[in-house]
């Protein structure tokens, strides 16, 4: 039997809707901003594998989903701060493009195997990025911490365990500058 690996398909949701879902998922899983994300992956039934990626991509991660399990692949040459965002991005693919899309599919048409790798910057990648940003830096917590730390991107990045680049993008997406 040949396995067909699906690629993620966009939901077509607005950023605000993806962000609200991500914040809700983080709350339901007990994820606190700044906490390690690895326990969340385990809690969801997944694992993380660090190493050279199969496609030779040295900069980004990927996810492989099979019935009852998933694996997030992280390259060895990236920082822990980037890895945290990449892991959340891949969880975005899992939640948005696998779990959520399977909810609306009838039996017999469910996605059973999926692989997501960076294929440019299409809508599915944007949706996964929106998910990651809101999962790791929920707007209310982000705005509070950003203001408490005097809008110092480096300090905010340290507090969330993320890169200054990710924090700057999040600040700009919330119209805070950055």
Q: Secondary-structure map with pairings?
A:
Elements: H1 15-29, H2 38-43, E1 46-50, E2 62-66, E3 69-74, H3 80-103, E4 114-117, H4 123-136, H5 139-148, H6 153-160, H7 164-173
Parallel strand pairs: 1-3
Antiparallel strand pairs: 2-3, 2-4
Helix pairs in contact: 1-4, 3-4, 6-7
Quick structural overview:
With 178 residues, the protein is an alpha+beta fold. It has helices spanning 15-29, 38-43, 80-103, 123-136, 139-148, 153-160, 164-173, and strands at 46-50, 62-66, 69-74, 114-117.
Can you describe what's shown?
The chain has 178 residues and is of the alpha+beta class. It has a domain at 15-137: Arc Repressor Mutant, subunit A (Orthogonal Bundle). It is 49% helix and 11% strand. The protein is built from 7 helices and 4 strands. The chain has a 4-stranded mixed β-sheet. A hairpin with a 2-residue loop joins strand 2 (62-66) and strand 3. Helix 3 (80-103) crosses helix 4 (123-136) and helix 6 packs across helix 7. The longest helix has 24 residues, at 80-103. It is globular.
